[in-house]
Amino acid sequence: MNSRSVIILLGSFSAAIFIGISLTNQYTLLGILIGFTAGLVNIQWLFRDAKKALDQELYVALKIYYKSLFSRLGMITLVVATIGRFRPEWLFYLALGIAVGVIIPLILAIRQQLMRGRG
Predict the structure, then answer these.
(1) Is 75 exposed, middle or buried (0-12, 13-18, 19+ CB in 10 A)?
(2) Per-residue pLDDT tens digits for 86-115
(3) Does residue 117 have a pLDDT over 80?
(4) Crossing angle of helices 30-53/58-86, nearest 10°?
(5) Crossing angle between the packed helical segments 3-24 and 91-116, to the nearest 10 degrees
(6) Does the pTM exceed 0.70?
């Protein structure tokens, strides 16, 4: 996924969430937005590291993936711990947002690969 599609995806999702907040006056929906952004950053980080590891030897590529895995896991843990500390009622929506933020870009990347004919 390129940065243009990420910005379009994040902008449209943010607009939908903010419209939902303004109509329902339910601020727990901000948890979905925070989770979606964290999931999107997580998957973009994975895509970037996959491009870096593509031309490397196996040992170096596995080292890149290993460091990336724990860094991304630490970032998601930090977001969940922060939200859990200050707004525990948002945790369900946060988990939902993280799941959507990871699944949608993966679906779009798979679709893009299949359309190019390299899948």
Answers:
(1) middle
(2) 999 999 999 999 999 999 999 988 888 888
(3) no
(4) 170
(5) 150
(6) yes
Question: Is the CB of residue 88 less than 8 Å from the CB of residue 23?
Answer: no
Task: Please tell me what DSSP assigns to residue 86.
Answer: H
Rounded CA-CA distance 44/49 in Å is 9
pLDDT tens digits for range 60-84: 989 988 999 999 999 999 999 999 9
Distances (CA, A) of 113 to 45, 46, 117: 18, 16, 6
How far is it, in rounded angstroms, from Cα 117 to Cα 47?
19
